[in-house]
Amino acid sequence: MDYGELGLKVLQVLSPILLAALTWVAAKIAQYIQAKVKNEYLRGVLVRLDDAVLAAVREVQQVTVEAIKSASADGKLTPEERAGVKQAALNSVKSHLGMKGLGELAKVLGLDGGAVERLLSTRVEAAVHDLKVARASSGAATNPGAALPFAA
Q: Which residues lie below 8 Å from residue 48, measured CB to CB, with a gap of 6+?
């Protein structure tokens, strides 16, 4: 028996094992690619959500809050006005996302309607806080009219 025949016999014996190993590696690579695509898609959805929330909060701040504060004697919002401003921001976010965007958000995150509403509310509050901190650090804190919605 020469080396050629021995190599052929070894290949015949090991080929099922090599094929199984190659199939396992291909499956793992496919899982990795699928997870990567899903994570990138989720990241994109969350980035679009944050952009919509930030745009809505800025819009409500500039259009609604400034008008209410200028009409107020003390330049502050009442609790009812804060709630109204927050609802206006939520409505603006929903308008920016649309029904399809809200449905996609719920599907991607695995949330029901009430949970999506709470998520949007939380994101609006976080955006208000971030803008308030940004304005305070940029020196706008000395201007009492520069406060953001929902802020005391």
A: 97, 101
Number of structural domains (the chain) is: 1
- In a domain, residue 9? The reply is no
Has residue 86 been placed in a domain?
yes
Give the total residue count for the chain: 152
Backbone angles phi, psi at 151, to 5 degrees: -85, 145
Place of tokens 């199984």: 20
> Which residues, 6 or more positions from 148, have their beta carbon under 8 angstroms from its beta carbon?
57, 61, 65, 128, 131, 132, 135
Where do the H-state alpha helices sit in the chain?
A: 3-60, 66-71, 79-109, 113-137
Residue the block writes with tokens 């029901």: 112
**Residue with token string 């029904």:** 99
The pTM assigned to this predicted structure is 0.68
pLDDT by residue (tens digit) across 103-147?
989 998 898 878 999 999 999 999 988 888 888 887 644 554 444
